[in-house]
Amino acid sequence: YRIIFIHVPSAWMSMFVYIVMAVSGFIALVWKTKLSEIVVSECAYIGAVFTALALITGMLWGKPTWGTYWKWDARLTSELIL
Questions:
Q1: Which of 1, 40, 44, 50 is placed for a possible disulfide with 14 were both Cys, Cβ 3.0 to 4.6 Å?
Q2: What distance in Å separates the CA atoms of residue 75 and residue 72, rounded to the nearest whole number?
Q3: Is there a contact between 21 and 40 (Cβ–Cβ < 8 Å)?
Q4: Are the beta carbons of 36 and 44 closer than 8 angstroms?
Q5: Which residue positions in the chain have pLDDT lower than 70?
Q6: How many other CB atoms are found less than 10 A from the CB of residue 20?
Q7: What is the DSSP string of 18-70?
Q8: 40-to-12, 17, 63 alpha-carbon distances in Å
Q9: Could you tell me if 81 and 23 are in contact, meaning their C-beta atoms sit under 8 angstroms apart?
Q10: 10 contacts 53 by C-beta, under 8 angstroms
Q11: What are the two backbone dihedrals, phi and then psi, of residue 72, each rounded to the nearest 5 degrees?
Q12: Is the Cβ–Cβ distance between 50 and 6 less than 8 Å?
């Protein structure tokens, strides 16, 4: 059950990084700042790493909990799509 201490923070961080990326992308489109473009490009990699970590640890946690590694739940599928 201790994998939850890795899974939950990585899922929260992935969502937080994608929010930062969306706000920076909006700023880059409106005010055309170079810094926001750099933030968007760097956040994409960091968000992908946190998302992969959340999905892998979620699968490892889901096997003993649900009896399967993956359920096609809306929350899980939306995280996979991100």
A1: 50
A2: 8
A3: yes
A4: no
A5: none
A6: 16
A7: HHHHHHHHHHHHHH--HHHHHHHHHHHHHHHHHHHHHHHHHHHHHHHHHSSS-
A8: 18, 9, 34
A9: no
A10: yes
A11: -80, 60
A12: no
Give the per-residue pLDDT at 54.
Answer: 94
Q: Chain centroid to CA 61: how far?
A: 17
Amino acid letter, residue 7:
H
Phi, psi for 28 (deg, rounded to 5): -65, -35
**Length, in residues, of the chain:** 82
Residue 50 is which amino acid?
F
The tokens of 21 are what? Answer: 């990326």
**How is residue 14 written in tokens?**
């992935």
